[in-house]
Structure prediction request, 447 residues.
Amino acid sequence: MKLDIPFPVREILRRLTLAGYEASVVGGCVRDSLLGLSPKDWDITTSAKPEEVKLVLSDLKLLEIGLKHGTVTALSGGMAVEITTYRIDGAYSDNRRPDSVCFTGSLTDDLSRRDFTVNAMAYSEQNGLVDCFGGREDLQQKILRCVGDPDRRFEEDALRILRGLRFCAVLGLSPDEKTARSMNTHRQLLDRIAKERISVELIKLLCGQNAAQILREFPQIIGQILPEILPMIGFEQHNPHHIYDVWEHTLHALDATPADPVLRLVILLHDSGKPHTFTTDQKGVGHFYGHGAVSVQLAEQALHRLRLDGKTVRRVSTLVRVHDIPLQPCAAWIRRRLNRMGEEDFRALLEIKRADSLAQNPAYRDRLNQIDAVLPILEQILSERQCFSRKELKVSGNDLIALGIPPGPKVGVLLKRLLDAVINGKIPNEKEALLNLAKQTLHETSG
Prediction:
């Protein structure tokens, strides 16, 4: 076998080898290449010490951020290539990074400290594939297995638990029995990991093709970082519109949702308020009045705790809040929604409602017809550039000031009235018509 290694990486390997050192690409780039995927990052492992790497590559721009752990990052050909000296890790007192490292001359020793067998493979043109722990066979069998003792691997770095689940969700792997058991046993160690690192892995996991299945198999691990989901698990809905409990409904909806971080976070949390709002009527039918508002509170609580950026939190909150509103195949209604939400979030709402409906009782999937009715009207509004925001309005604040309105809040109030009239189809978005309505409104208010 021969890997298709980019030229800048090949050149660094060549230079290290010519200088008398061993050098191989290692880790995820080897794994992804074996799977026929295009690696996003290329990492090199070498027998050269960091100072020796710096000497060999002295003409390149080098970053020394990871120097403490033996890593030099070389910038070459538009790529950032991490070059790490063969090492043996010391103790992990924070369950995340080694307190110290010891450089070694053995590639096997270096591979033995890595997390999973599928990530513990190296490749060079001189030696071919170096696979000391059966990573290639595990890839073929779609198995995720720790290198050595799983308990030790997860105690060293608890983030490996989520990384492992992420690999399973994205690459279609399944943990072997010992690895799965150890993941569950050590899940509380995730509490010690920085929330920013947790959120990165969680979002990658959620966007994996097999995310729903992994969440189904490991709900307690997900619940360790998102306790908001735990009440959903096994919570029966007792409603003819639903054939699944709240958690299973969520997972089926997740499967039907595009692999977009915001959309999948919305689906994951859109019904989190249901267990807290459950009531039954006289016929024993379950209802969840006000669950949307409670779900918003829980979603915001979870996302702030995970320290997601403000835009993501706002978008998820907005979409969770409106996920249950009835759709109306009416141009004026759609323009009003576009005014409030913008095109991106309105399209996201349609995707959320489609996935939500596909995860319900097939006998009650009427929302799909509503979505199909709304879409062509939406496309017409956008293609015709119909007005649904102030920036498209054919008059401005200066036009109203020219009518004699003093600058200030009244200008904004009147612009809103004019925009509402256009959105609701009462007048065309034409300057003359808008100014006439403005004059009429001024006359009525002054009279």
